[in-house]
Amino acid sequence: ASQVEKAKELELKEQFDALRREHTETLQELQRAHEQEKLLLAESHHRSEAALQETIQALNSQLKSFQDRMKRVEESLLRTDYKKHIQEHGSPSPFWEQELESLHFVIEMKNEHIHGLDKKLLHLETVEERNLLLEEKVKTLQQENEDLQVRTQNHLVMARQLSEELQAARGALEKEAQLRDQARREKEELLYRVLNAGDGSPFPMAAGEVPLIAT
């Protein structure tokens, strides 16, 4: 019976150790997966940022090309009007030359202002899109962290329950052993009294041994 009890206790201990190892391995695997996801997110963010920079450069190049074409068209129109004025009125007056210079300056200022607004608008749109993507990733990581915490808590609860069951099983085994010892002692005492009835000799007890009382 003692071997059976030891085997049962050993089996419970092995089950508890196996569950604890499984919990540790699962937690480590989840942590590794979480770290890998963070690395992949960082790499994806860098790639997206590089792609956005390339797109911005391409758009700026297209905008500059368009503005250059517009400038050439405007200058061509000014030259055409200028030549027409010479043909119709002779050499231009100082006032006409001043008007042409003022008009050219205004056109340059407007082109620069438009270019600055386009760059600012593009930058704001890019920042807004990147922030939305990052917010979604943050929400995903937060949900994964919450799931990891729940799974970890569940494993801890299971480990505590198994530990309590193991302690209860040990207590039951110890109680059962005490009851068997008490029954054996009572049986021996009864047998002794039957065999030695009438001589008045007390039942011998081992040194330090005290009677057990079943509870």
From TrEMBL:
This is CCD69 protein. InterPro entries: MTUS1/CCDC69. One of its GO terms (cellular component) is spindle. It comes from Ptilorrhoa leucosticta. It is found in: Cytoplasm, Cytoskeleton, Spindle; Midbody. It comes from the Eukaryota. Its main location: cytoplasm. Keywords: Coiled coil, Cytoplasm, Cytoskeleton, Lipoprotein, Myristate. One of its GO terms (molecular function) is microtubule binding. The lineage of its organism: Eukaryota, Metazoa, Chordata, Craniata, Vertebrata. Belongs to the CCDC69 family. Residues 13-76, 124-193 form a coiled coil.
